[in-house]
Design a protein that fits this description.
Helices cover 59% and strands 13% of the residues. The protein has 17 helices and 11 strands. Helix 11 links the parallel strand 6 and strand 7. Helix 1 packs antiparallel against helix 2, helix 3 packs antiparallel against helix 4 and helix 4 packs antiparallel against helix 5. The chain is elongated.
Length: 493
């Protein structure tokens, strides 16, 4: 949030001092013009603005805003009635309206006691118009020299324009800064400061639209659960932050992919560096680093899986391939960079469902552990979508197992196409779960409705074969602060 109490107090004190100096000038003008009622009123105003600095110091900002508006409104109205419409005092009420709405916005941003300024602005409008009507039928009590009218009109014109330009420019800057901050928070991981999965989705669009070749690698911290169990979750946060800082300083884009996983992506340029050597260097740097937390010293290693992307390839398939290599490396000793999956035993890729190519039950259980950790840390923000694919046995019996597999794979493909920024798991033969995170979390209602709509559209397509007409049951649940663990969230689906 751009506006904070320190900045607001500084702006408020500046306004009070400026208005104080204006009233000092007004005393001089009114005294020379022998408008003594306004001399006395300006003495009161000067005393008030000195007191208003105390209001700002004590952070009684709502009271400051209201009393400033009332002081200006009364001062300007009385000055117009006494010296005439030509003195130009009334235009200041227009500038005060802009300032009043800025004050309300600031109060709402700081979560102060909100005082709606609209009634005060309406009062200012009636004072403005009422003064004009009064002077139309009644002459002013004092006649100012023409020279005084001239300079006062210029003075108030300058003041009103300065107020309007300052406030409107400040509001534009605040709005722009707030949007940038929100976009940054949406696209970056809070713990590590690295770009997140949602940010990478925009990078994927750029990659798909271009003709360049890229390398993509997924890395995972080895034995991270053991670190949490041995030294506590705060230590786990420390490890993630430290590694995030190390990876964020590298040239290739590095994102926090989820939990203790990180993703690298960069263009392939033979003259620049060798991706494998780069990843080996990162692996060795992390392996060599001594971690220390609350007197406990330990080492951390990471495993990497890397794949190449060529223009026209299915980038999701490339990422899945890198993921397979990562988990293959996990099963074959950890702390390595895996480029060729065939060098690893086939059964090593135990975190991926072989039919649908999404993550399997083992990966799901690993994700549940990570979510429970976030829940304990009070940093969790996720939802769960559960999809049961009905009628699989009927397809198998009538059309064969191949069509049954196609039935499951097709239904899964729709899930992946809808929740592109979240992880999809096959947790049973005909059951899938989506852990909604990143941008999908904020668009969850729209996406869930889209998922149901797509399934309904396929089911009602009479021209499609039975194994492409998906009958499903879908439910969604969102994590709440009262939930003690993941099972409570999943139980509501």
């Amino acid at each position: 949030m751009f506006m904070n109490m320190k900045r607001t107090k500084l702006v408020s004190a500046g306004i009070a001092i400026c208005f104080l100096l204006v009233h000092v000038l007004m005393i001089t003008i009114f005294y020379q013009c022998e408008v003594y009622p306004m001399v006395y009123f300006n003495i009161f105003s000067i005393c008030y603005y000195l007191f208003s600095l105390f209001l700002v110091y004590k952070e009684w900002l709502p009271a400051f805003a209201v009393t400033v508006y009332l002081e200006v409104a009364l001062h300007m109205t009385l000055a117009v009635l006494l010296t005439g419409w030509g003195s130009g005092f009334q235009v200041t009420l227009i500038g005060m309206n802009v300032l009043a709405f800025y004050a309300e916005y600031t109060g709402r941003s700081l979560k102060l006691k909100v005082i709606r300024v609209m009634p005060f602005c309406i009062l200012g409008m009636f004072l403005y118009l009422g003064s004009y009507v009064y002077l139309h039928f009644n002459p002013p009590a004092y006649a100012l020299p023409e020279k005084a009218h001239f300079w006062l009109t210029l003075l108030w014109g300058v003041i009103v324009f300065v107020i309007n330009l300052f406030v409107l420019q400040l509001l534009v800057y605040i709005a722009n800064t707030s949007e940038e901050q929100q976009e940054y928070q949406l696209s970056h991981d809070k713990l590590t400061g690295l770009p997140n999965r949602y940010y990478f989705s925009s990078v994927m669009d750029t990659i798909k639209a271009g003709r360049d070749s890229y390398w993509i690698a997924i890395a995972d911290i080895d034995n991270f659960k053991k670190i949490n169990d041995s030294y506590g979750h705060n230590c786990g946060d420390h490890v993630l932050r430290t590694i995030g800082e190390m990876l964020g300083q590298k040239d290739p884009l590095c994102c926090r992919w989820g939990g203790e996983e990180f993703l690298f992506v960069d263009k392939i340029c033979k003259k620049k560096y060798d991706p494998y050597e780069f990843l080996e260097g990162v692996r060795k740097q992390i392996e060599a680093k001594s971690f220390e937390y609350e007197g406990n010293k330990f080492r951390v290693t990471m495993t990497f899986g890397m794949s190449d992307y060529e223009a026209g390839d299915d980038i999701e398939a490339v990422i899945r391939d890198a993921d397979e290599k990562l988990y293959a490396g996990k099963q074959s000793g950890k702390n390595k960079v895996v480029l060729v999956k065939d060098t690893i035993p086939v059964d090593a890729t135990s975190y991926q469902d072989q039919l649908t190519r999404v993550k399997n039950r083992s990966a799901y259980d690993k994700m549940v552990e990570s979510l429970n950790w976030d829940i304990q840390k009070k940093t969790a923000q996720f939802g769960v979508v559960r999809i049961n694919i009905d009628g699989v046995s009927d397809i198998n019996e009538k059309y064969g197992n191949d069509k049954g597999n196609a039935y499951i794979s097709g239904a899964c493909r729709i899930i992946c196409n809808v929740f592109v920024n979240s992880q999809v798991f096959r947790i049973g033969g005909d059951e899938f779960a989506v852990i909604i995170t990143n941008r999908d979390y904020y668009d969850r209602d729209v996406l869930f409705a889209s998922l149901q709509s797509r399934y309904k559209e396929r089911l009602e397509d009479s021209a499609a074969p039975p194994w492409k007409r998906y009958r499903t049951s879908c439910g969604m649940s969102i994590y709440e602060a009262s939930d003690k663990d993941y099972t409570e969230v999943f139980a509501r689906v």
